């Protein structure tokens, strides 16, 4: 007799902790791993994703005549970002044949472990792709990734117009510079300066190819500062800022990130959640479970983010 739905759910409950499965997804994705380590994963409900920002300086501090009259004026320095929730799913199937062949408990556990890992890898790749995809490739159901915040001719992000909020534009969006230089015009250092708002970026993300080009430009011993952990960690730094690689990063792209101004908001009911096994109506005696994410990326200070997008040498 094939593995039943009740048996599958019993094995799942007994041997697979849903929180550990969720952690597995976070560890698979460079950006999610960094956000999680920086406590920038926000679990929250509501009809919209909102976050208050300071978009202008108060400008009221002054040296005064202590005997003069006190003059005050109301000045609006804050407004709210607003983004829509986005929905992502991955169906994890188990065929009739798989259910029949894997009858013993050890076989069932091994099969389900592999299924959960496969689903986690799929959903992790999807969310990473959403973060990195070009704004021109963004579909109506897609998340607002990095290039929704950082893009050419960008005047509005998360409902806030650049004309309504001072400095409400990305720090850098360079689509012409082709040579990776360390200092000077169009350099890594110039990118840091362009994205320096109150504090400089604390992370740079690039491709493995560009990371190798960067390493080749340094003298032995200049760059080495080994970093522990997975998810794109390298031993490459520039001015004490870590450089990490992500397989989903667009070709020829070098990204500047301020991690404490970047968040992933997720719904409490769909925080990379794996649902119960259920009957698959589309295939003979197959069962399936559903991996779900409801959330969106959010950037609270555009000036602190930027990218070169055409580096080739």
Account of the 3D structure:
The protein is 27% helix and 23% strand. The protein is α+β, with helices and mostly antiparallel strands. It has one domain (5-53, 84-308): phage-related protein like fold (Alpha-Beta Complex), CATH 3.90.1690. Strands 1, 4, 12, 13, 14 and 15 form a six-stranded mixed sheet that branches. A hairpin with a 2-residue loop joins strand 5 (156-157) and strand 6. Helix 2 (18-28) packs across helix 5. The model has no long low-confidence stretch (mean pLDDT 84).
Order of helices and strands: HHHEEEEHHHEEEHEHEEEEEEEE
The gross shape turns out to be: globular
- Which structural class do the helices and strands define? alpha+beta
Could you name the ranges where pLDDT drops below 50 across 5 or more consecutive residues? none
Give the strand tally.
16
Distance between the termini: 60 Å
- CATH class (first level) name: Alpha Beta
What's the helical proportion of residues? Answer: 25-40%
The CATH topology annotation reads as phage-related protein like fold
Summed up, the helix count is 8
The CATH architecture can be given as Alpha-Beta Complex
Question: Strand count, sense and closure of the main sheet?
Answer: 6 strands, mixed
- Mean pLDDT over the residues: 84
User: What is the number of independent domains?
Assistant: 1
Query: What is Rg?
Result: 24 Å
Strand content: 15-25%
């Amino acid at each position: 007799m094939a593995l039943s739905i009740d048996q599958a759910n019993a094995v799942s409950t007994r041997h697979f902790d849903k929180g550990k499965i969720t952690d597995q997804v976070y560890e698979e994705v460079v950006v999610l791993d960094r956000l999680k380590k920086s406590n920038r994963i926000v679990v929250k409900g509501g009809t919209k994703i909102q976050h208050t920002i300071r978009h202008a300086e108060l400008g009221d501090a002054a040296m005064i005549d202590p005997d003069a009259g006190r003059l005050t004026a109301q000045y609006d320095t804050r407004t709210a970002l607003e983004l829509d929730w986005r929905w992502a799913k991955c169906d994890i199937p188990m065929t009739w044949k798989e259910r029949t062949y894997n009858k013993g408990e050890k076989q069932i556990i091994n099969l389900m472990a592999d299924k959960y890992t496969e689903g986690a890898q799929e959903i992790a790749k999807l969310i990473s792709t959403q973060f990195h995809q070009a704004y021109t490739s963004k579909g109506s159901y897609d998340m607002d990734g990095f290039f929704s915040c950082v893009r050419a001719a960008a005047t509005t992000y998360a409902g806030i117009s650049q004309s309504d909020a001072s400095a409400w534009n990305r720090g850098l969006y360079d689509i012409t510079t082709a040579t990776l230089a360390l200092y000077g015009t169009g350099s890594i250092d110039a990118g840091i300066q362009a994205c320096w708002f109150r504090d400089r970026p604390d992370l740079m993300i690039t491709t493995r190819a560009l990371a190798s080009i960067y390493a080749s430009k340094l003298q032995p011993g200049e760059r080495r500062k080994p970093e522990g952990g997975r998810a794109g960690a390298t031993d490459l730094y520039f001015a004490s800022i870590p450089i990490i690689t992500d397989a989903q990063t667009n070709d020829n792209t070098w990204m500047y990130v301020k991690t404490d101004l970047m968040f992933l908001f997720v719904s409490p009911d769909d925080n990379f959640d794996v649902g119960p096994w259920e009957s698959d109506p589309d295939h003979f005696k197959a069962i399936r479970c559903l991996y779900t994410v409801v959330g969106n990326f959010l950037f609270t200070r555009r000036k602190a983010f930027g990218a070169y997008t055409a580096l080739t040498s």
